[in-house]
Design goal:
alpha+beta, Pemi-like Protein 1, Chain: D, two-stranded antiparallel sheet, 3 helices, 14% strand
Length: 74
């Protein structure tokens, strides 16, 4: 598959729907972008980050009273 995309004034591009469907991309997922020596840009679906799934489970306020002692370091 080959298609043309246009970069916006904010340097953004839209991944064509055929590519999104083929890769099974969902909103919020990441792509790994690689620039090859021959001026070719490669885009691949990035591997899932296991740490990202834990984001938000621990309060960001610094209030750790509700955490298990093991998590607090105690």
């Amino acid at each position: 598959m080959s298609t043309s995309v246009k970069m916006s004034s904010k340097n953004q591009i839209v991944v064509p729907s055929e590519a999104r469907k083929a890769l099974g991309l969902k909103p919020g997922e990441r792509l790994l972008v690689t620039l090859r020596d021959d001026d070719v840009i490669e885009m691949r679906k990035a591997a899932a980050d296991p740490a990202a799934r834990l984001e938000g489970l621990i309060p960001a306020s610094g209030d750790d009273d509700g955490l298990w002692p093991e998590v607090r370091g105690g």
